[in-house]
Fold each of these.
Amino acid sequence: TEACLAAIEGAGALNAFVHHTPEIAREQAKAADARLAAGDAPAMCGIPLGIKDLFCTKGVPSQAASNILKGFRPEYESTVTSQLFGAGAVMLGKLNMDEFAMGSSNESSCYGNAVNPWRRGNDTAELTPGGSSGGSAAAVAADLCLAATGTDTGGSIRQPAAFTGIVGIKPTYGRVSRWGIVAFASSLDQAGPMTKTVRDAAIMLGAMAGPDAKDSTCSDLPVPDFEAALTGDIRGKKIGIPREYRMDGMPAEIEKLWSDGAAMLKDAGAEIVDISLPHTKYALPAYYVVAPAEASSNLARYDGVRYGHRAKLGQGDGITEMYEKTRAEGFGKEVQRRVMVGTYVLSAGFYDAYYNRARKVRALIKRDFELAFEAGIDSILTPATPSSAFGLGEMADADPVAMYLNDVFTVTVNLAGLPGIAVPTGLDGRGLPLGLQLIGRPWEEGDLLNHAYVLE
Ligand code: GLN
């Protein structure tokens, strides 16, 4: 814990931690020492973690990187963080992210973006750590903490993990409680661990997961021992390679990474099978209807009354002006864009044309995966991202759709509610990390982690 606190002090330029909690960390570390001395060694005992700012942590600023939640200190602890602390974990502080987890580059944060610790060869230009869990990824990659929590609505654990050379898993929807995590798109959001190794991910996921009476979408299924699943034995497993993920203009190094990954799994005894997921091309548009729709509904609660920021009002301003001014000041540009798209697709005249259509497409995407698994496929291998980390400022303020295209390989997994993991498997020509994604059967995170363990 002391080593991490010192590392964080020295790495301010990465802007990974946005709230520091050294007093809490030292107290928790002491308690962990006492537990160890008493012969009690729970899974996360004494492990110093960073916590994404989207998680409510009791008495500690929890702002979802938004100005509208300025000054908000929750009265309660999210289920995930309370389970981690119960298992002995130590909180070093809160981590930077895109505002309300909307983004792929960390540039929508009210704190300014976190910075990727990696550089392109000798080029000193700063790169994005990815998003939305960019602070989590930067902190783990730069050894500021041993692991971090992330959340993933459309790729926000897997894309930043791939951009920084770490491991990140989005569990099956319902494996981890969403209680106390600021909601973005409730039918897609899942929390998961971001770690240095697959083994760490297995251990930490075990501590985060499990039934929770406070979240009705959280499954009652018991949590298996994920670490025990890491046997390295994948003989006879069928790994699908979906042809629709082979996009036009895919960089040669991503193609090579993908085929090298398939060769590694084959060498370990798996069977590699070409498969088709025909509705893949509709996933991105469906996601960018469903996610903003749910976001516009979830964000209605930030009204200047219940939480955080309230605008200063002028003479004669009534409640409508109060809402309008508060939200105009409190929400950043990307969040405003999502609220507008979301309310539009949900509005009476357009509901059937957009939202209902997207829900139907979502069902077809889910069915594609079900058919593949019914045909005996155990997991599916794809690239995690279409490129390595891009430069800060390169995409922001350009066409927002260019930024959305980053999520092309990851959003299908959230739409279908499946578990997906990003594993670092190589470097590109400029020395930047690249990751592959494995997609698993629902509730089979153990098996999925084991396949990733072979690729690592
Ligand atoms: N980049 C995607 C978006 O902006 C995914 C975000 C996420 O997974 N939280 O919606």
Amino acid sequence: MKKDLLKLLDLSGEEILKILDTADQLKFSQKHGIAHDKLKGKTLAMIFEKNSTRTRVSFETGMYQLGGHALFLSSKESQIGRGEPVEDTARVLLRYCDGIMIRTFAQEEVETLAAHANIPVINGLTDFCHPCQVLADLMTVREHKTVLEGLKMCYIGDGNNMANSLIVGGLKTGMEVAVACPEGYDPHPDVLAFTKSDPNFKFTLCRDPKEAAVGADVVFTDVWASMGQEEEKAVREKAFVGYQVNKELMALTNPGCMVQHCLPAHRGEEITADVFEEHAEEIFDEAENRLHAQKAVMYLLMGGED
Ligand code: CP
Ligand code: NVA
């Protein structure tokens, strides 16, 4: 049966770790010039209904490095933007391609696409989640800290797609997760239900960023107004006052605490310029690891496994 990557809720902790191990191996091969053209002759269709820099470039480059080819399909220039049903798009693309990556608004669209395509579907971001980003994030934290289990992850800001995936990915890999969001901007109810599904999970949701930051080993944040929420920008700027990753907040964390940001970052809003620059090396490692983590996902899902 074909496998997809639609959301981290669908994966076990072991499956997440297997992706991270494969990503480490593929990164090693790429850095050492070892051939790893494991998807030779395969094609990935990439559907974008929202903007992107990292996701597009890392999937396209990753597919090329694996010996395959990626096609960029913008909703504006394809029939998707003119209302062709996603079910039909799925049934067409499966006749040409070996996998589909999609970035869109509703999670349901990705689930429907996957239900109608007998080829792997990879979620490149929805309003609900951003699984590829969080695989890269976990890979980066593990690279810097050696293990994930027992570390404390803190997330400050909007309970958005990044928060949803970080909570699930962090808890499934044995991390403690503390989230601080303003009232009205909590993570998705399905994700909050998941945090209660295992008595071993260490999860807290609070209103005070300082409370969440105490003893953290890695601090995450993200934009206050995500793609599609541009009209809410002014309201959100007021609601998120105080939900900023700055020096004062970082003083409460553990020594050597990392800072991660999926990018693009908004200096002076969710993060200060000084904290960003102090942790720039880790943040750009995180951006680089999109390439390696997604190569692992494509290799494992698109039939490249030996
Ligand atoms: N972090 C991330 O997904 O970046 P892009 O929006 O540039 O793809
Ligand atoms: N939460 C952000 C993430 C961007 C990579 C958004 O959805 O716009």
